[in-house]
Amino acid sequence: MADRILVTGASGFVGSAVARLAVQRGYDVGVLVRATSSRANLEGLDCEIVTGDMRDTASMERALKGVRFLLHVAADYRLWARDPEEIVRNNVEGTRATMEAALAAGVERIVYTSSVATLKPLNRCAADETSRHDEQSAIGAYKLSKLLAERLVEKMVAERGLPAIIVNPSTPIGPRDIRPTPTGRIIVEAATGRMPAFVDTGLNLVHVEDVALGHFLALDKGRVGESYVLGGSDVSLKEMLAAIAKLTGRHAPRVRLPRLPLFPLAYGAEAVARLTGREPFITADALRMAKYRMFFSSAKAVSELGYHARPYREGLADALAWFRQAGYLK
Questions:
Q1: Taking the model in full, what pTM does it have?
Q2: Which of 77, 132, 240, 262 is deepest in the core (most CB within 10 A)?
Q3: Tens of pLDDT along 76-127?
Q4: In a domain, 182, yes or no
């Protein structure tokens, strides 16, 4: 009989890639989905949909009955909310409830999906797992929430024997970015000619399917209590937009904007967002983050797990193909 595995957040971008790979690997797959979540990313997938909520310990205990392995991918991934505390509450309390339930259920191994948001960029070179944010240096509610949740997992490993391995994906791109993520929105805007300029920043782009494989490498080979960056290529925003332009037959933007004059625009966009409830395209926190090149090293995952990432342009091409087919590029 196949081992039972539960994937949380499976209706989302990274979670659906993880769930697909779990099915391909022959596990008996349960996917935890909130009652209100879209099922579009799970269509045609041979898995059991379990309705529940990561913040509710009782529903997690029900979902984890008979589960050998837990991949906790679910997170509130927003860089802006009317109430920023909501992001912190969701990610910290959701992680706490899920890990408590996993301990109670006797789950054998857990992969907890954190983020490079918990790591402090070094600007001149790629940061690794040792370059850690603290509560003062983390910019914005999302980074703070992931930092607090990751520390909570580490504490439960140390004090209560939680059998968890932590993975820190960088910036995933690729198919089924259904919401889309902040990076997915940049890809869509650039592909439809609505990004005529850029700020001088950088990020680490990785194919979402490589991130998914990294989860299983961590499950198989990761050391409990350790964290592993699952990254890809360090790319400037200018390079990324040029690559998108080449793939879509457009002209690459050449205008480089200074960050500081954009802050009033961001504050205005956030004021409008508070009225409409729709996430703004530009935020003050995003501009603060853009000061740093978010470059990261996956050397530890490569040496310990056998992790490998394909060239980032393949991720962009797959993302664009999916966005086009799904009707986002009209």
A1: 0.94
A2: 240
A3: 888 778 888 899 999 999 999 999 999 999 999 999 999 999 999 987 789 9
A4: no
